[in-house]
Each structure stands twice: as structure tokens, then as C-alpha cells.
Amino acid sequence: AGRSKWDIREKVWEHLEASGLAEFPRPVRGRIPNFKVRRRPALGRLLLLLLPSPALPGAACSAPQELEVFSRAREVKVDPDKPLEGARLAALQARKTLLVPTPRLRTGLFNRIVPPPGATKEMLRRCATSQGVRDYSVPVGLDGKAQVDLVVVGSVAVSEKGWRIGKGEGYADMEYAMMVSMGAVQEDTPVVTIVHDCQVLDIAEELLGDHDLTVDYILTPTRTIQTNCKRPKPQGIMWHKASSTLINSEMLGKIPILKTLRCREKQAGKDVTLQDEHPALADTNRAAISDKKVMAANPQPWAAPGSAPGGEPHVESDPGNPKLEGSDTITTVYVGNLPGSLRVSQLKSALRELQVVPVALKWQGAQHRAFLEYRDQGAAHRAVSSLQGLSLGGSALRVELARSQRNKG
């Protein structure tokens, strides 16, 4: 199944494209993949297999309402990905409360979909689309008293044991952890994922972290799998494990509701201290204390990707930032053979997963390369070892120490 999560993702994305199973939106690489169901081209996608109506002869899998957990659920949370339109439609047609996460959590956690009075089947179909979610929804905040009975998530890969791999950005894991923290889900709240049969793979349990969401049911075009997964799901926001999640200063700046939740948990007496991903910030020496002061003044070491003109490098951390100056030695790692379709967010996700996050990232996508800067040579060598040969966007990375090292002080 591959030696890393990224290997597994790449294999799934490549197979879906090469086999002709990939469906709009294309390319599927970097996404929760949408796919065609062969032998029933008129059905198009798996979403039509999820309608709350009697199963059609030859239909590819059971509809979710045939699951007892769907039938008894009153409030259902379904991710906004395209392949899950059918699940959203099923919830609306069954007159259940449908909650859809705000994409990338930019403006809150949930949107509750509210179809117009007397909505026809066609209108409900529209409400289940991404545009419908925007047009027919109201925000649900931390005080919304959500009580989710069923969670439906997309996956890139999943195992019959319930181990799940998403597209690498961690939002499904984050959303579930936030729901736990706000009391919206319980330990026994079932989690369902919908994938093609080729996405069901053997996944080594050691690839999973405490923050990874597992699933209880898998729906494919040919079967319904009950995983009987015993691995605990995330128990809430793990503020102290920034190296294995998206939680860092950047995320706090981008996700207002996460910042509010952190404040509430702090007031409740919980430890919400962020253990920053950069090793130097975990030190107790004088230099580390100075760095922390700089971080407080400049809380976004990885700014959102911008539109760097032409072949100019996109600097994820300002090279003139004082925290890179002084007596520290900066060791630079060269990452080459980046495919043109690769996004900087995908590289950052891989760095987080492999726990080799640099203090600065210089993105030169037009030249198919990037430069990673580390405070010590040990961290740089770990990055080279972890990234060498890693497949991203269908290309094996070329990784080595840069020829010129920056020595300051």
C-alpha cells in the first residue's frame, strides 16, 4: 500500500486517472476523488446510489438509509466535497438536519442547509450542491447546540479496519476534533465514508496519528463494510501536538472559530499551549525565548500562497525575518523535480506529516523547485532522508542539501 500516506494518495489518484474512473472535478490529484461507476453509465457517480429510494436493479451499492445509523440519525454532518452530493441529498430528502462544514473553516465551522418551503426534488438536488450550500444555508457557531448523530466524510484511501487517509490537509480531522470539543459528537457517533472499491487498501496502522479520524462504515460501488474499528477517534483539539496537526499560529490566524474555541478551553482551565512545529521554539535557552517573542510579533511564518510574478520565488517565511538572523546557522535543503501541477499547500502538508517542517520555505514553482531552511544540520538531514524519492504529483522528488549554506552571525 506504500511506505507513506503520500505514496498511498499518489497511487490512488494515479489509478483513478489512468483507469478512466476519475470524474469531475479533474484532475483528482489533490482532492477527495469523484469517480464514475462502470456498468451503469446513466447513473454517473456514486451520489445517485445514495438516494433515499428503493435500490435500483443492478445499483452499485446500498443507499445510506439502509444503514440503521442513517435511519435513526436526526442531524447529519456531511463534508462539502463533490462526491458527497448524494449523501447530502439523501439527508435533505429524508428531512434530516444537514450540516456542512465551511470550506477550510474560513467563516465558521458549520452551515445548516435550509431548503425553501415546499422545495421540490429538483430544488433539493440544487441545495445539495456546493452552490446550493452557499445559497441555502445559515451559519452555526459554537453556541449553535449542534448534536450530530452521523458524520459522513470523504477519503482518498481507507482500509477495511477503518483507517482513513484524506487528501492531506487535515480539515476532516480538525472538524471532528472541534465537534468533540464543542460537544457536538459523542464517542459512539458513527462515521461513514464513501469511496470507490479501488480506494479500499491495506494501510499500516503505524501511519496513523492520534489526530487521525477513523471510520465505522465504508460504502463502495459493490459493498457496505462495517469496520468494527476499535481505535479511539480524536478526543478533541490536541493543542500541544502542532507537529501532527494543522494547529499552529498560521491556522489560528486563518480560522477565527478555532481561535475562539481555544480561548474558551483556556478559560475552562485546559492546557491550550501550542508546541510549535519548529524545534528551536521548544528550547528553553535564551535564543529560543527570543524567537518566541518574534513569533508573537509575526504569528504567520507560513503565509498563504500569493501570486508571485513570473519566475519569482514565493517566500513562505520572510528571509529577512529577525528570527533567522543572529548566531544560528541556517541549513538549506533543495527540493527539485516538483511537477507543475503541485501546489505549495501539498508540499507543506507532506512536510507536516513527515514532521520535518522548516523555519522557512521558498517556493519557486515555475522552476519546479523549492528551498527549505532549517536551524540545525540534524533537522536538515532528517528532511533529506524523509523526502528523498517521495512521490508528489506523480513525480519522485529530488532532495539534497543546497550547495550554498547560509551562515549568519
Can you describe what's shown?
Residues 299-326 are annotated as: Disordered. This is Methenyltetrahydrofolate synthase domain-containing protein. The chain is α+β, with helices and mostly antiparallel strands. It contains eleven helices and 18 strands. The chain is globular, with a radius of gyration of 22 Å. Strand 15 (391-392) and strand 16 form a beta hairpin. The chain is 25% helix and 16% strand. The chain has helices spanning 5-18, 68-71, 85-93, 121-127, 130-135, 171-181, 249-254, 256-267, 286-297, 344-353, 377-387; strands at 75-78, 97-101, 110-113, 137-140, 150-153, 157-158, 164-165, 191-194, 217-219, 224-226, 314-315, 329-336, 360-364, 369-374, 391-392, 395-396, 398-401, 406-407. Helix 3 packs across helix 4 (121-127). Among the domains are: 5-51 and 65-226, Rossmann fold; 332-401, RRM (RNA recognition motif) domain (Alpha-Beta Plaits, 2-Layer Sandwich). The chain has an eight-stranded mixed sheet with strand order 4-3-2-1-5-8-9-10. Strands 11, 12, 13, 14, 17 and 18 form a six-stranded antiparallel sheet that branches.
